[in-house]
Amino acid sequence: MTVTVRFAPSPTGNIHIGNARTALINWIYARQNGGKFILRYDDTDKARSKQEYADGIARDLAWLGIKPDRVERQSERADAHEAATRKLKDAGLLYACYETADELDRQRKRFAMRGLPPVYNRAALRYSDEELARFEEEGRKPHWRFLLPNFETDPFETKRTEIHWDDLVRGPQTVDLASLSDPVLVREDGSWLYTLPSVVDDIDMGVTHIIRGDDHVTNTGVQIAIFEALGAKAPGFGHHNLLTTASGEGLSKRLGSLSLQALAEDHYEPMAVASLATLIGTSGAVEAVATMEELVSRFDIGSVTKSAAKFDVGELDKLNAKLVHELAYETVATRLGAAGAGGGEAFWLAVRGNLDKVEDAAFWWHRIESATPQIDAEDAEFIQSAAGLLPEEPWDETTWGVWTAAVKEATGRKGKGLFMPLRKALTGESHGPELAALLPLIGRERTLARLS
Ligand code: GLU
Q: What's 245-324's CATH class?
């Protein structure tokens, strides 16, 4: 049996770092088990699903390094969903309900007042012929509920009915079907809610493991019952913890700043985002992992913790800088060119250790090409002497040492008193990359001009 997982976003907005967590955990699980990863667009909501969002999701996954083995669209599978709906209706497991949202709301309030749980009372199973005729006459359209198997013979005599599964993340889980309302599977307008099409597709696509956020744990109890009602064996399940903002708010598609698209546009390294999105909220260390292969070999789904994990941009910045400090020139050359940073490999090696983002290299390239020297009055004489001792070209990374040794000897200055005025004169900044590496890039002519 080939391990088969799916990432099933609704293309109704841009995906964010929390969705990336679900996608990555699925992808890694598939890679660890020689399995397949399906990207499935849950696009049955015609009004809100948009092609541009579907394209955006594919682009964002590719940016993270995820290449789906298969792409599916729920909207193209209406026949299969229809067949399953028919099968459930024929078995008497999907029943028509005519309550309006208002009526259901009033019913819930009445239950609450009597201290009863807000579980639907299956009143629709008791409609008389007259009632049904009246609903027809009023032009009401039914919505359809799945009859949960939480009773022996009388649906009004429910009994504790435990559904069990051994969760890949949370260990043994139990949901009592008697504590739940029969879920609505089909709306008044005939469209499906996500619950049934998802099960039908998971069956038809041979999904062996459903890995998703822990906001779906209760759905899982219901969906396992639907798998069984359709004559299928339920797959394995894993429910990972969700990410929240630093202030503890849930992430939503409206939080644009944490969308993968925004993070990519902000020049974060995809592996910094992937490392954090995967390793946060686990019992292991959150570290910057340089390649997807490495992430696949170190992530363990069993190490995901149960409580929500806070996503902190500061942590992403740290991981990003760590990765950037190690990036080889070949991997960034095109990006440096696009950001307007010339200078080739020597330049990259000189500055990378000082960068938070690759594109920030442009700042130092501009400082090499032109800088406004900062020379304090008390350093003016010192700077003049240093200019007089500047070695002849050709220059290399040893030039700085030779030059500053001569300046030290001539002026008696050392340490910060020696280096800082030179740094400020040469770059216009009081900190930055090693001057030994910058000096040959600045060159003698520009250096002299900045010292005078
Ligand atoms: N489209 C559903 C969601 O985004 C999929 C949930 C699932 O993975 O089953 O919540």
A: mainly alpha
